[in-house]
């Protein structure tokens, strides 16, 4: 089977959920003997999106047909203001580039593919070119129900203008998203919740649930190198749900962590942390670290993972990775959406200040409890998120679509 994957960013290095999912999909397909091509947009204004030259990336790239194209997705203040009077979904349209479309068309004229997989809404603007120049089945993989993310963000805002703006964006994105999804041959989602949302939105196409797959050989927890107790957050803060969630957590627990009864260090790491977050930094209490060189080593070095998501959708790959690293995780139910968890057994679920406080207080006092939660979490991931199992399901899904 020949598969072409389209992405809105370079998935190297694997420093976030999106690239981890894409790279594991590629590895899984290659290991089963399928041919894979990857065409990636390269948004150069994001430094951490740049292709790395590590051995792991080079080894994977050498096994595929790989092309990238530089684009500018920046929006000026003037363009943003004009967008208020434009009914188009500029948030998505900025990823359209004629040069990339031309490169894609030339590829499709030369090579025939069985499957073209669109990784998320930001590459949907190239659907017209793919459908016109290829007989391949067109698969959409939803990393989030994008309009739902914006709707949930709007609910959280108290400022009337911000709430209005987010609702406006959600409405425009929803209109575009639902129109595009009904043009694909089939859709893959990570969670039952996202499938339910799509069906409620009157999506006509086949929607299959395929969970996040991890290469379990990459995850080697080592408690001898773990600081206990310690809390940590790891995620990119250029994604609004992450920024909103961690800001809520810092504002809510700042005094508990710095002068109160929660006697534990809290580490915040990830890409694109705004400068104003430095104001939260308190020596010996709260550490705003920014981007880390080795995400898995950072995760291994800390004991309790905090995921305070208040708005989002899809499956949080960082939680699945944290489980693979045998971390004790405290998350909102929304953050853990789509994971077949059991509260108090393989994760701790907290949705209010009081619930978070109680979970943190319990975990930082009981190392053996944390280790047991982490061991159970690892078992859950091994059973349901191993990339070999997930890729076999993906190929069966492809075959079903091809035979339809």
UniProtKB/TrEMBL annotation:
* Entry-linked InterPro entries: Glyco_trans_4-like_N (IPR028098), Glycosyltransferase_grp1 (IPR050194)
Domain of life assignment: Bacteria
Q: Which Gene3D superfamilies match?
A: Glycogen Phosphorylase B
Coiled coil residues, start to end: none
Segments forming domain Glycosyltransferase subfamily 4-like N-terminal: 16-218
State what protein this is by name.
Glycosyltransferase family 4 protein
């Amino acid at each position: 089977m020949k598969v072409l994957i389209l992405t809105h960013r370079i998935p190297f290095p694997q420093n976030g959920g999106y690239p981890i999912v894409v790279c594991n999909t590629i590895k899984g397909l290659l290991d089963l003997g399928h041919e894979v091509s990857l065409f990636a947009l390269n948004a150069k204004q994001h430094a951490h999106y740049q292709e790395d030259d590590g051995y792991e990336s080079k080894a994977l790239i050498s096994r595929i047909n790989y092309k990238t194209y530089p684009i500018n997705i920046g929006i000026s203040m003037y363009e943003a203001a004009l967008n208020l009077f434009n009914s188009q979904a500029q948030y998505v349209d900025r990823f359209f580039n004629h040069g990339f479309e031309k490169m894609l068309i030339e590829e499709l004229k030369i090579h025939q593919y069985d499957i073209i997989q669109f990784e998320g809404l930001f590459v949907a603007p190239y659907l017209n070119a793919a459908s016109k120049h290829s007989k391949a089945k067109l698969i959409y993989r939803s990393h989030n129900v994008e309009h739902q993310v914006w709707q949930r963000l709007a609910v959280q805002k108290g400022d009337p203008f911000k709430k209005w703006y987010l609702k406006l964006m959600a409405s425009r994105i929803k209109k575009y998203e639902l129109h595009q999804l009904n043009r694909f041959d089939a859709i893959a989602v990570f969670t039952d919740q996202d499938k339910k949302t799509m069906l409620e939105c009157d999506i006509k196409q086949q929607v299959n649930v395929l969970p996040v797959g991890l290469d379990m050989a990459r995850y080697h927890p080592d408690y001898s190198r773990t600081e206990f107790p310690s809390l940590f957050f790891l995620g990119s803060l250029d994604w609004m749900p992450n920024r909103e969630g961690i800001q809520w957590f810092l504002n809510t627990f700042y005094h508990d962590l710095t002068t109160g009864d929660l006697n534990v260090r809290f580490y915040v790491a990830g890409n694109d942390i705004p400068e104003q977050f430095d104001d939260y930094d308190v020596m010996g209490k709260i550490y705003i670290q920014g981007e880390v060189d080795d995400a898995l080593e950072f995760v291994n070095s800390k004991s309790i993972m905090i995921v305070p998501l208040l708005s989002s959708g899809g499956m949080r790959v960082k939680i699945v990775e944290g489980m693979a690293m045998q971390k004790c995780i405290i998350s909102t139910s929304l953050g853990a959406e789509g994971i077949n968890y059991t509260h108090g057994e393989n994760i701790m679920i907290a949705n209010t200040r009081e619930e978070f406080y109680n979970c943190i207080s319990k975990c930082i006092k009981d190392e053996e409890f944390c280790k047991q939660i982490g061991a159970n979490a690892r078992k859950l991931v091994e059973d349901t998120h191993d990339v070999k199992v997930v890729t076999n399901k993906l190929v069966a899904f492809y075959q079903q679509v091809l035979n339809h």
